[in-house]
Specification:
Largest sheet: none
Structural class: mainly alpha
Number of strands: 0
Distance between the termini: 75 Å
Helix content: 55-70%
Radius of gyration: 25 Å
Strand content: under 5%
């Protein structure tokens, strides 16, 4: 039975892993997990094909956050516009 270490990766190791994924593609990561599963001989092939969270999922999360914050900002600007247009809010900036 193989011993698995659960140490935290440094920033440099994370960057190198990301660069390897960009250069060689995701197939190399999945194939290396497949070989690790074969060496363990525990018939855990279903867990070996689960890919880690990719950059695409992070991209979707980031875009969703950007969309929410931009809608909030635009909504605040529209509310301020109508309040100042109807003379409910007077901003004497100059």
């Amino acid at each position: 039975m193989a011993i698995h270490q659960t140490k935290k990766q440094s920033d440099l190791e994370k960057r190198l892993q990301l660069l390897r994924r960009q250069v060689y593609g995701q197939e190399s990561v999945a194939s290396s997990k497949y070989y690790v599963a074969r060496e363990d001989k525990k018939n855990s092939l279903t867990s070996s094909f689960q890919l880690p969270a990719t950059d695409i999922s992070y991209l979707h999360q980031d875009l969703l956050k950007i969309l929410i914050f931009s809608l909030f900002a635009i909504g605040a600007q529209v509310i301020l516009f109508f309040l100042s247009k109807n003379h409910i809010l007077n901003l004497n900036l100059f």
